[in-house]
From TrEMBL:
It comes from Paraburkholderia sprentiae WSM5005. This is Cupin domain-containing protein. Residues 118-174 form the Cupin type-2 domain. It comes from the Bacteria. InterPro entries: Cupin_2 (IPR013096), OryJ/VirC-like (IPR047142), RmlC-like_jellyroll (IPR014710), RmlC_Cupin_sf (IPR011051). Pfam families: Cupin_2 (PF07883).
């Protein structure tokens, strides 16, 4: 089991002086029931751009959501257990349940010929950093082995994370809401139309 995350949030007092608003464990830590051992540690999120710099309420309260808010960001750690043969054989219907638990089943792109059952895509720029353990980034074409210190810049591509090791991997993710370039959007629309035929 990975160690808990300690979160320190700063703020301002009535005189504008910097203070510690909170210091302690994360209030939102969610294990995905459909994939036991997969744990989302929600650290912070922002909505709108530029975000308000205020003493507002904790934005991690509420249900888990995979993508970032519109024009916003999402900052989280995810603990990813090793893939098992049972997990890999469960198929698309079970993975739809997993994505539903993350608040957006529509991000799943898994097809019968997908290279991994957790293939998905969000219209965002995501920074993914391996903190501990090993991970494999799987794309439509190719894959990349990742070790601690590896950083993936995910630019709205179809992908999955495969843990082919024998221990849990912890990754840090920062997701930034985005909009596809018109040429990429057109290619994606054409690809989706072809798949539905």
């Amino acid at each position: 089991m990975m160690p808990p995350i300690r979160r320190i949030v700063t703020g301002h007092d009535s005189r504008g002086r910097a203070i510690v608003a909170s210091d302690g464990p994360l209030p939102s830590v969610v294990e995905i029931k459909a994939i036991p051992g997969t744990v989302f540690h929600e650290v912070w999120s922002t909505a709108g751009s530029p975000p308000w710099v205020d003493n507002g309420p904790d934005p991690t309260a509420g249900p888990l959501m995979l993508p970032p808010p519109e024009q916003g960001t999402r900052f989280r750690f995810v603990d990813i257990p090793p893939d098992t043969q049972d997990f890999l054989a469960q198929g698309a219907s079970k993975m739809q349940a997993a994505f539903s638990e993350t608040g957006d089943a529509n991000v799943s792109t898994v097809q019968s010929d997908s290279p991994h059952p957790l293939m998905h895509r969000t219209e965002s720029i995501d920074y993914g950093v391996v903190i501990e353990g090993e991970m494999t980034l799987i794309l439509d074409e190719g894959e990349v082995a990742l070790a601690p210190g590896s950083v993936v810049i995910q630019r709205g591509t179809n992908h999955a994370w495969a843990n082919r090791s024998n221990r849990v991997c912890r990754m840090l993710f920062v997701l930034i809401d985005g909009t596809y370039d018109s040429a990429i959007a057109a290619a994606l629309n054409t690809s989706m139309e072809t798949e539905t035929r």
